Amino acid sequence: NVIDLIKRDPTSRRIIVSGWNVGEIQELIKSHHHAPPSCHTVFQFMVIEGKLSCQLYQRSADTFLGVPFNIASYALLTAMVAQVTGLKPGEFVHTFGDAHLYLNHLDQVKLQLSRKPKRLPIMWINPKVKSIFDFTIDDFELRNYDPHPPIRAQIAV
User: Fold this and answer.
1) Which of 12, 53, 56, 141 could covalently link to 43 via disulfide, CB atoms 3.0 to 4.6 Å apart?
2) Is the whole model's pTM more than 0.85, yes or no?
């Protein structure tokens, strides 16, 4: 368990989570179903000077639709794990094997790039929560969020 390892040995270089469900590999082979490897292949936590950082290696990344959600999700996960391990959130580092922009998203990307950035919101997390399994939706509040209107796009398969 990653959280136990962070608490027990925060200097470990083995605080790693793999996206592979090894329990399913033999079944996939037997059924001749070759599911692609997880896009979120592996992420690793590091503790430096009381701060918890996370690095995600993403095998395949849809830069317009997927990556913004991935960044928000893993940054939130890092903050949650930091809280329940008594650390402060550090950095989130995101690396890609194959980052791609689909042609059917070009107009939406041009619109996104034409927009003036706004102030970042603040994510409040209930400081009373001490177990990763005790979080509920009510323990999170995005403060000062002032988004642009959404940009819709079809998922490319």
Assistant:
1) 56
2) yes
Position of tokens 């690095």? 55
CATH code of 48's domain: 3.30.572.10
Asked if the structure places residue 147 within a domain, the reply is: no
Contact 87, 47 (CB under 8 A): yes
Q: Is 39 a residue of the active site?
A: yes
Any domain includes 120? no
Amino acid at 79: A
The per-residue pLDDT for range 35-78, each reduced to its tens digit, is 667 888 999 999 999 999 999 999 999 999 999 999 999 999 99
Of 2, 5, 39, 76, catalytic: 39
Q: How far apart are CA 143 and CA 2, in angstroms?
A: 29
